[in-house]
Amino acid sequence: MLRKLGALIGVFMVCVPAYAQPLRNDALFTHGKFTEVKLTGLTVRLGEPVEVTSQIGWRMIWPHYDTWSFVHLTPMMARFPGGELIVTYALDPDTQANPVFISGFQISKDGGEHWGLRYSVVMQHIPMIFIQQPGDSLMALPSDLMEQTPGDDRNLRGPLWRFEQGGKRVVMEPDGLRVLGWPWPVKVDRGPQPEPNWHCSLVFTGDAIKLGGELLATAYWQRKGEKLFQDGLLASKDDGHTWRYYSTIASPADILPQRDWKQRAFEGADETSLIRLADGSLMAVFRVGSGQKWHLRRAYSNDNGRTWTKPDVLPAFSVEPKLRRIANGTIVLATGRPGIDLWFSTDPRGRAWQSINIVAYHNRQISDPNERISFFQIKPAAYLSDNARWQTSSYTGLVQVAPNRLLLVYDRDPEHSPSGPDDLSRVFVLPIEVQRK
Fold first, then answer.
1. Are strands 242-250 and 230-236 parallel, antiparallel or unpaired?
2. How many Cβ atoms sit within 10 Å of the Cβ of residue 356?
3. Which of 143, 211, 275, 298, by CA, is between 20 and 30 Å from 68?
């Protein structure tokens, strides 16, 4: 029987703050220009974008790849138990053909109004899962894993990070995370790194919950010899060090009949976000492709993630969804590509949705054209469902910093070689307040 929320379950969502902790600095919500957007049953107040970082891209030319770095920043944000914030973003090209995988992080100690130095020490490209821990700390699960030994495609390893004391201390435990006894061989992506460092197509990204003494985390994977992904949950009983298969949320067959699998840009089920609903059930939302035609899918679980309903289709599209259920019960979803949209549902099951175009709002707030997120066309490519592009990866992070107050992190980047010295890649955070009528 599904257990109700409470101390026995000890639900602990990634990036969700403990409400007993005071907001360290609410300046972003008490000064500056706010715009009110009236939705059915809601008033959403949007503040002014705050720049976290900016930098011009640089070109990498070597035999295997020719591209611009600091493009597709894929930003992520999490909140420490004490209120400090961390933002991570990629510093390498968006390809497995990199000679090195590296992301940077920055810390804010005043609620997101100001950000500290960048430290380029995170050996990952895809956003990691952050889990709050005692001592004002965050544990970060690596998104990119390697085989435990070359040729062992069922037992995987990766580094485990702890950002301690609100980000004052960073500890990396080499091979601190292991996935053991995976039911299927996973695909391994060859690259220019030493073979033991080749990445496996089993990726931790999204969210985690705590269920009793067990951690559950979202991931997606690609079986050896297959081209499409499926997503699901892994479980750890030793505080995130050892993980095993727990359940499958969706496979390609749950999304489309096999005759349609060769559709342009269809990926299967991959990037996933997870929340617990008011009735105690779980709701997972996940990506199935890239482009406006590829709407997110959603599934429910009434037995703590062991089994899942057949996915339905959401109006939102298309990559790296970020779900949060905030203090007043509203469900908030950030996603996009093309563009960035914020979606809201006042229904406890998330059946009906309303949206705000964040790119349009950002561009109204910004006077400098080099900071705006512009639209452009690209050449057709086999992996794309359309050729429309905005200057953003459309990856976002969403954190509730106080009851019904959120920060959204997103990026602006050229998405191609910079047009000049002022065409910078940038990361922003946006304050948002959601009031129910």
1. antiparallel
2. 17
3. 143
Which residues fall within 8 angstroms of residue 340, CB to CB, at 6 or more apart?
334, 357, 358, 359, 362, 373, 390, 392, 394, 396, 410
pLDDT value at residue 71? 81
Three-state secondary structure call for residue 195? helix
> Over the stretch 110-131, which tens digit does the pLDDT of each residue have?
999 999 999 999 999 999 999 9
Pick the CATH number of 27-436 from 1.10.150.120, 2.120.10.10, 3.40.50.11720, 3.30.1490.100: 2.120.10.10
Residue among 225, 185, 215 at smallest CA distance from 202: 185
At residue 219, the 3 state secondary structure works out as strand
Average pLDDT, the chain: 91
Share in percent of the chain as helix, strand, coil (round to 5): 5, 45, 50
One DSSP character per residue, 285-350 reads: EE--BSSTT-EEEEEEESSTTSS-PPPEEEEEESEEEEEEE-TTS-EEEEEESSSEEEEEE-STT-
- pLDDT tens track for 241-263: 999 999 999 999 999 999 999 99
Mean pLDDT computed over 356-366: 97
Cα 282 from Cα 303, distance rounded (Å): 8
Answer for the pair 207, 231: CB distance below 8 angstroms, yes or no. no
**Domain ranges, ordered by start, for the chain:** 27-436
CB 391 within 8 A of CB 378: no
Backbone dihedral angles phi then psi of residue 51, each to the nearest 5 degrees: -80, 130
pLDDT of residue 223: 98
Phi, psi of 200 (to 5 degrees): -95, 150
Q: What is the DSSP letter of 148?
A: S
Average pLDDT on 172-177 reads: 97
